[in-house]
Amino acid sequence: GLLGEAVACFEKSLAIDAANPDAYSNLGLALLRKGEVDRAVVQLRKAAELRPDDAGIQGNLAVALLENGQVDEAIGYFQKAVVISPDDQSFRNNLGKALLQTGRVDDAIVQFRKAVEIQPDYAEAQMNLGLAFLRRRRWDDAVVCLRKAVELQPRSATAQYLLATTLLQQGQVDQAIVTFGKVLDLQPRNVETLNNLAWLLA
Q1: Residue 157 CA: distances (Å) to CA of 170, 186, 200
Q2: Which among 40, 125, 135, 151 is most buried, taking Cβ atoms within 10 Å?
Q3: pTM for this structure?
Q4: Under a CB-based contact definition with an 8 Å cutoff, are residues 119 and 89 in contact?
Q5: Distance CA 66, CA 110 (A)
Q6: What is the rounded CA–CA span in Å between residue 173 and residue 69?
Q7: CA–CA distance, 152 with 10 (Å, rounded to integer)
């Protein structure tokens, strides 16, 4: 397919100029899109070594490492990207997600907060901040963020589900039932939501 052709072109480019960070980066991203994560990491690592001050390359390497299950190393590269480009909301959000994966909830909250300060209508970061507050059992804070996420992205079943779960924790059963219903409108075969709704209606 086209991705395979792109990979071949980038490989030819590197055969001509083996010190071209853009070619390593583009090859790595093409491999990542093909699902060849191990090979993508190798190429993106070379790009990052050749251009250590490029936040985009550091961030892309971090994404590949995260997909490869190398979470701690991914955090290190996301942190490098944030140092280089502190006002990039995407790097902040991705760093927060990686921190959340390792159980560093409070550190993740700092990054998600910064992401939504930079871009208040960043639905994914609002949802992730809500999830982090949910993990900390800070129900009121979670509801504020998750309502914002749902307002920005009403067709996000994940955001709706997290909001319904938090409302339930707050004891707002009627609102939780309505919100679980919205999840089922988006995902009629969502078994977990069906079970929750049946339990609440029983």
Answers
A1: 20, 6, 19
A2: 125
A3: 0.88
A4: yes
A5: 20
A6: 37
A7: 38
